[in-house]
Design goal:
It is built from 13 helices and eight strands. It is of the alpha/beta class and 237 residues long. The chain has one domain: 3-Layer(aba) Sandwich (Rossmann fold). A six-stranded parallel beta sheet has the order 4-3-8-7-5-6, with helices on both faces. It has a two-stranded antiparallel ribbon with strand order 1-2. A hairpin with a 2-residue loop joins strand 1 and strand 2. The chain is globular. The model has no long low-confidence stretch (mean pLDDT 94). The structure holds uridine-5'-diphosphate. Uridine-5'-diphosphate binds next to helix 9.
């Protein structure tokens, strides 16, 4: 898999269909693997946290999730031209899982959210097997790990926010015997309709950040990260 590196963080030059083919391969060979979504916020956090940087780079597939990564690739003469968002990829994985019989475990979000999201997904992707569900507010890892092992899923989606979910996956994946783990942030809330996504036209123009800024103005500070990231990329030319 070809990777480009921005401020020390790897990002795969991939499209959704090649990731889905790779997932078939991962599940067939049952190699413990994990997918992480990369955006400027995570890259900037990793500048101050070497362990996070190592963790992001240790993932099997780093998807180009944020528009800032696409702009950075253009500025640096890279080849990444299209976003692969975590939520879209997650749902495409569910579609592929319904077709190929892969079993899914949902871990994360507030009590009740993953159940509701699971029902919506099973309704949308007929034949989808969701073999386990747990909310993301637990104290002990051990019981969760036991539950996951017992359910024996092929894919574990972890929705506990970043970088918490990535650390959780990295610290526990060797104990889980699950071929594929993926951090999905707030995707279960979006699927349930608790959080609204930007309209399609805004997403395709790369303006999802503007929509979130209008809807959640208190995220303003978090969003300042995008121009800071791009300035750093330009300075590094
Ligand atoms: N969450 C969780 N356990 C925690 C903290 C957060 O399950 O200890 C869930 C929270 O309920 C929400 C998601 O993690 O569903 C975080 O979503 P957010 O949009 O903040 O994710 P990010 O922007 O970091 O991808």
């Amino acid at each position: 898999m070809i990777k480009e590196t921005y401020l020390g963080v790897d990002v795969c030059c991939v499209n959704e269909s090649s990731i889905l083919d790779e997932i078939d391969n991962i599940i067939e060979r049952r190699l413990p693997s994990f997918i992480v979504a990369i955006n400027p916020e995570k890259i900037m956090k990793a500048q101050k946290d070497i362990n996070l940087l190592k963790l992001l780079n240790s993932a099997t597939i780093q998807i180009p999730d944020g528009i800032g990564v696409i702009i950075a690739s253009r500025l640096k003469g890279g080849k990444i031209r299209k976003r692969v968002t975590g939520i879209d990829l997650m749902q495409s994985i569910c579609k592929r899982s319904a077709k190929n019989g892969y079993k899914i475990f949902l871990l994360g979000a507030k009590p009740g959210v993953a159940e509701q999201a699971g029902k919506i997904l099973e309704d949308k992707y007929k034949g989808l097997k969701i073999v386990g569900i747990r909310d993301g507010y637990f104290k002990e890892d051990e019981t969760i790990i036991k539950d996951i092992k017992k359910a024996s899923p092929d894919i574990l989606f972890v929705a506990m926010g970043s970088p918490k979910q990535e650390y959780w996956i990295k610290n526990n994946m060797d104990k889980l015997s699950v071929p594929l783990c993926m951090g999905i942030g707030g995707s279960l809330d979006v699927i349930c309709g608790n959080i609204k996504r930007a309209p399609k036209w805004m997403c395709s123009l790369g303006l999802e950040w503007l929509y979130r800024l209008i809807k959640e103005p208190w995220r303003f500070k978090r969003m300042l990260v995008l121009p800071v990231f791009l300035i750093k990329i330009l300075k590094g030319r």
